[in-house]
Amino acid sequence: MRQTSKITVKKARGLRRKMSLPEVMLWQRLRGRPGGVKFRRQHPVGVYVADFYAADARLIVEVDGLAHDFRVERDLVRDAWLTGQGFVVVRVAAVEVFRDVEGVVEGLVRLVTSR
Predict the structure, then answer these.
(1) 3-class DSSP state for residue 64?
(2) Averaged in consecutive runs of 10 residues, what is the pLDDT profile of the chain (115 residues)?
(3) Residue 21: enclosing H or E segment and its boundaries?
(4) Which of 17, 74, 99, 108 is the most exposed place for a label (fewest CB within 10 A)?
(5) Residue 45: phi, psi to the nearest 5?
(6) What average pLDDT does the chain have?
């Protein structure tokens, strides 16, 4: 696996200060360790920054807003690299976070605890 660079760590710190509304909503729930699962936010992984990361299950959670509709190929390359490194990548639509944040959290906790 590529080493996480100082640049990626710095980028992750900046992204923590500029989280989108659905990311903030999800973080409000995940930071309380639902079901005993620890999540990190804006976590550097190689040259990428994961929106959320559950280390115990090597699970990366990406919240996809409208911008991701225009970055499909880039996301595919990113997901392929992460999967090749042994991570599981789950994409959650921002609209789903708005619609049912508790349901999203419950689904993520079930996924982590089943691994």
Answers:
(1) strand
(2) 67 73 96 96 92 96 76 88 96 95 97 90
(3) helix 21-30
(4) 17
(5) -135, 105
(6) 89
Residue 60 burial (10 A CB sphere; 0-12, 13-18, 19+): buried
| Distance separating alpha carbons of residues 58 and 21, to the nearest angstrom | 24
Give dist(CA 6, CA 55) in Å, integer.
20
> 64: how many CB neighbours lie within 10 A of its CB?
19
Please give the single-letter amino acid code of residue 31: R
Is the distance from CB of 60 to CB of 45 less than 8 angstroms?
yes
Q: Give CA–CA dist 44/36, Å, rounded.
A: 22
Domains of the chain: 6-114 (3.40.960.10)
**52, two tokens:** 């959320």
Strands 48-54, 88-93: pairing kind: unpaired
Per-residue tokens: 86: 């042994």
Alpha-carbon 61 to chain mean position: 3
Model pLDDT for residues 3-20, shown as the tens digit of each residue: 667 777 676 666 767 888
